[in-house]
Amino acid sequence: MRTVKLDLDHAPYQILIDRGLLTQVDLILPLLPQPRVAIVTNETVAPLYLDPLRSALAARGVQVQAIVLPDGEVFKTWETLNLIFDGLLAARCERKTTLIALGGGVIGDMTGFAAAVYQRGVPFIQIPTTLLAQVDSSVGGKTAINHPLGKNMIGAFYQPRLVLADLDTLDTLPAREFSAGMAEVIKYGLIDDLFFFEWLEANIDRMMARDTGTLAWAIERCCQNKARIVAGDEKEQGQRALLNLGHTFGHAIESGLGYGAWLHGEAVAAGMMLAAVASEALGYLDAAAIERIRALLTRAGLPVVAPALGVERYLELMAQDKKVDAGTIKFILMRQLGQSYIGELDYATLTRTLQRGCA
Amino acid sequence: MRTVKLDLDHAPYQILIDRGLLTQVDLILPLLPQPRVAIVTNETVAPLYLDPLRSALAARGVQVQAIVLPDGEVFKTWETLNLIFDGLLAARCERKTTLIALGGGVIGDMTGFAAAVYQRGVPFIQIPTTLLAQVDSSVGGKTAINHPLGKNMIGAFYQPRLVLADLDTLDTLPAREFSAGMAEVIKYGLIDDLFFFEWLEANIDRMMARDTGTLAWAIERCCQNKARIVAGDEKEQGQRALLNLGHTFGHAIESGLGYGAWLHGEAVAAGMMLAAVASEALGYLDAAAIERIRALLTRAGLPVVAPALGVERYLELMAQDKKVDAGTIKFILMRQLGQSYIGELDYATLTRTLQRGCA
């Protein structure tokens, strides 16, 4: 079993990575303030993994409430969040009842936010069942729901007590979902880990074949990278913004096409390509580096051309982003392959980038 | 000007108490990370106090967005909260935009919760305009909205950067609202401040006449008492629960009659009488003490008899309370006049109390 320790302000916790973790409830039991949990999952994940987890907990005397939500980014709304509150209140769940998120990034973000605000905060455990959630959304304590005017606009910083990344759950992940997770994996190479980027170039076929040892090492590396960046900047005042590489463009793509048309990871992949193209225009990246990024994303089954929403529409969508400060949009750009920075783009460069980088 | 300092974990701030504070924007300006605020208020308060505050800020170069909500506890819902998010997003308010709550407890609770979760947290200032908000709800960082199945069920602990208690705003407060605030004032005497309870017995007429010096001293005393209790237990793991004297019964009254039928303070007053009657049944309070409590509440214009909802309905409503631990309802009871404690009530005593204490 691989272990990544996060030591965030007042809330240290561990990420455990291995096969067969879902039913190892000995990992969970010591963390429960009372023998009672509410498992929040969705209609896709529930038939696969809810019963094994529920049975294992019940066999140890834990009272289990299950709340099954509809599946998809389009349901990452207040209305769906309220289904969690309805379930918790109908079952009279208390302040010491622990919420367990069993699912991908949407379930993790919504359950985490529900845990942050139900009765002003209850304990919370993450069991991410997608690659994207295992390497990214379950690490670092960001929780949120979407608002019609912007993605992740309503949320909280709230840390889980434990993250169980069970590699078995990746076996059932559809190819498109797995690829979407690979976008965030590749992102860590591009942020500040050239060694990892080159390791991915050498091991991409084994990754896509979901080889256990390869997956476990890559997930650990991603979590370590994210943990290091988050620990230095828990509330995103500075360097944590690097984790948003590809996300300013990506959120605009998701929002512009309507949530759910593209998967989050797909939009991030196309967004990272736009960031690379912009960085080339600024004179930082050369054509060879661009080509290596494009090749790796393509081999991971990801889109490398952003949809043609039009320059003005992109600007309008990006102006709504949380990473706006005094009217200026912040972009994560690349100084060189494997080294990103927080910068700005002038209107001309941004226009040229969107013209070159979109379909 | 009277000042109460709160030194809560990572977020020290001041409560300032005086006349004429609303337009003293020099108190606010140094706390703004950017010259931009969103004032959240309601349809009752806006015609009285929005323009003076807005003008004073605008005259100093601050960009002001106003969000005016409907007035009343019945609007302390997600739907109304969402009007704040709609307003903030439509105006493209950023992470450094400060939210100012201008109103009573409902506005303070909702604005504080909006500040806690908008873009995962933005700065927040309280300008409470009711007695209840000045002595209670604006102190200590509790924010929340109601859920159809329970009061204040969704919320956060989130501290303001400043509280301005402008005594001028109490001049326009309807008598019923002022009395409701007096319930929380008297509560501090009953929790652990016999000196203050007796001071109130001696000064209740001056209080009800809204004499400036009397008000200022009483508000300062309440804030000091609350600050002391909260500082020892910011997340309500223990002694902070004392602040809920009268509230377990009170929330049941509010919820059982439908939010808005009784004001929160009225329900708390009747709830404190039930707590006193229960304490007498347990052999702690004598008839003379009960009579003094009843007399002071009555002189403050408050109800001392709870509505007859029926014992079973009370139990059902109270079982939904946040102060439930492992199925046991916690009650705040009185060991003697001016000394409360966190305890439990057996079924027989509770039944007898509700039969004796209700209409």
TrEMBL record, chains A, B:
Q: Which residues bind Zn(2+)?
A: 184, 247, 264
Pathway annotation: Metabolic intermediate biosynthesis; chorismate biosynthesis; chorismate from D-erythrose 4-phosphate and phosphoenolpyruvate: step 2/7
Question: Where is NAD(+) bound in this sequence?
Answer: 71-76, 105-109, 129-130, 142, 151, 169-172
Signal peptide residue numbers: none
> Which co-factors does it depend on?
Co(2+); Zn(2+); NAD(+)
> How many and how are cofactors bound here?
Binds 1 divalent metal cation per subunit. Can use either Co(2+) or Zn(2+).
3-dehydroquinate synthase N-terminal domain segment(s): 67-179
Question: Where found, per UniProt?
Answer: Cytoplasm
For whether the record's keyword set contains NADP, the answer is no
Q: What is its main location?
A: cytoplasm
EC top class named in words: lyase
Keywords, A to Z? Amino-acid biosynthesis, Aromatic amino acid biosynthesis, Cobalt, Cytoplasm, Lyase, Metal-binding, NAD, Nucleotide-binding, Zinc
Q: Where is the 3-dehydroquinate synthase C-terminal domain?
A: 181-324
Catalysis: reaction(s): 7-phospho-2-dehydro-3-deoxy-D-arabino-heptonate = 3-dehydroquinate + phosphate
E.C. code: 4.2.3.4
- Pfam families xref list: DHQ_synthase, DHQS_C
User: GO molecular function terms here?
Assistant: 3-dehydroquinate synthase activity
**NCBIfam families xref list:** aroB
Q: What family does this chain come from, according to its entry?
A: Belongs to the sugar phosphate cyclases superfamily. Dehydroquinate synthase family.
What job does this protein perform? Catalyzes the conversion of 3-deoxy-D-arabino-heptulosonate 7-phosphate (DAHP) to dehydroquinate (DHQ).
UniProt-recorded name of the protein: 3-dehydroquinate synthase
The scientific name of the source species is Chitiniphilus purpureus
Lineage, broadest ranks? Bacteria, Pseudomonadati, Pseudomonadota, Betaproteobacteria, Neisseriales
